[in-house]
Amino acid sequence: MKSSAETLSSTAPIVSLASEPDERVAPQRADHPATEEALAALNRAMAFAEPLLAGRVMDSGEDAYAHAQGVAAILASIGGGPSLQAAAFLVYAADFLQRPEDVVEKAFGPSYASLVVLTRKLVQIQRAAREAQLGDAQRAEQTERVRKMLLAFSKDLRVVLLRLASRLQTLRWFAASKRDCPVALAEEAKAVFAPLANRLGIWQIKWELEDLSFRFLQGDEYRRIAKLLAEKRVEREASVEAARLQMGSDLQSHGIPAVVYGRPKHIYSIWKKMQGKHLPFEKVMDVRALRVVVADIPACYAALSRVHERYRAVAAEYDDYIAKPKPNGYRSLHTVVLDDEGRPLEVQIRTQEMHEHAEYGVAAHWAYKEAGTKGYGGVSAAGEFEQRVAEARKAVLRQLLAWERDFSGQGAGQVQGRFDDRVYVFTPQAALVELTAGATPVDFAYALHTDLGHRCRGAKVDGAMVPLTTPLANGQTVEITAVKEGGPSLDWLNPEAGFLKSPRARAKVRAWFNARAQADTIARGREAVEKLLQREGKTALKLSELASQLGFKEADDLFELVGKDEYSLRNIEQLLRPPPAPSEDDNPLLKRTASDAPTARGGVLVVGVDSLLTNLARCCRPAPPDAIGGFVTRGKGVAVHRQDCSNFRHMADRMPERVIAVTWGAAAKAGEAAYPVDVQIEAADRTALLRDISEVFAKERMQVVGVHSQTVTDMHGRTARMTFTIEVADASRLQQVLVQVGQVAGVRQVRRR
Question: What pTM was estimated for this model as a whole?
Answer without folding.
Answer: 0.45
